[in-house]
Amino acid sequence: MEKFHRIFELHQIFSNRRTPISLKDLNEKLGCSESTTRRAVSFLRDSLNAPLSYDREHNGWSYNHQQNQQFDFPGLWFNPEELYALLVSYHLLSNLQPGFLSEQIAPLQTRMEQLLVQQNIQTPVLKDRIRILQIAARPNNIENFRKIAASVLRREQLKILYHGRERDSTIERQISPQRLVYYRSNWYLDAWCHLRNGLRIFSLDRLHAVAELGKKAKNISNKELNEKLASAYGIFSGEPEHKAILNFSAEAARWVADEQWHPQQTSKANRDGSYELTIPYNDPRELVMDILKYGPDVEVKAPRSLRKRVQERLQQAIEKY
Known about the structure:
Elements: H1 3-15, H2 23-30, H3 34-47, E1 52-55, E2 60-63, H4 80-96, H5 102-118, H6 126-129, H7 142-154, E3 156-164, E4 169-183, E5 186-193, E6 198-203, E7 207-216, H8 222-229, E8 242-248, H9 250-256, E9 266-269, E10 275-281, H10 285-293, E11 298-302, H11 304-320
């Protein structure tokens, strides 16, 4: 074990205990000799000023936690697993939204890579080892994204110029951002629209201008957000008014049985190997698209309106051929 990692693990052992631990037990936990453990304890106490004390009665070492003060290493200290996790997290964020916080995080990434080098651990080339595929992702304006993310966290209002696809119109709105949502390779914003006096979902790629107003945002509870924006299937949710009952073939059941289409879904396996899935929904547009992906391996059992809509889309597709 490298010296850095050994010191860090020793610190973790003492931090997670309230009773002394013997030198013998420390040797076993660290997997090293008694002399190496003694040197590590001395370095932690004398060089890093850790509040280590020896208890003769219990023949062991422990941190002397006084006045509920928690000792921690000075500066940026992580073990290799934590450094890898941080680098992977940054790599993931960079791929989900290129350019977001790159200037702010780049120095930290460099520091993390230097720490790995100091520990004689190879810095992974993440782009070669972690592959992230985004399907049908739509580009976003990075400056708009930064303003929105900051306003969501600061709980402040925004003025936006939004172009809606359905009506093909652009309207200026004043909104109170509630939360950012990453869904199917694209970003959305749950917000209170002061123009419509209600909750709305905005696709970030449809924003043409974003201005920070510096006004306190109207706050909507997570419970209400989930009830009105996340309780039904798909991004076009609203409160669920229907339940779709879908029956998948035995072949499709191998995959569908392991998938979560919605947090409130229910399901059952049939004797013939088929699989029945029940999903709450309001707006059927996205649900219809997902049903059509399975072609002949799925049948809409209910409601009749959804079954008819899928039939119509299939018929329209047949007419193309």
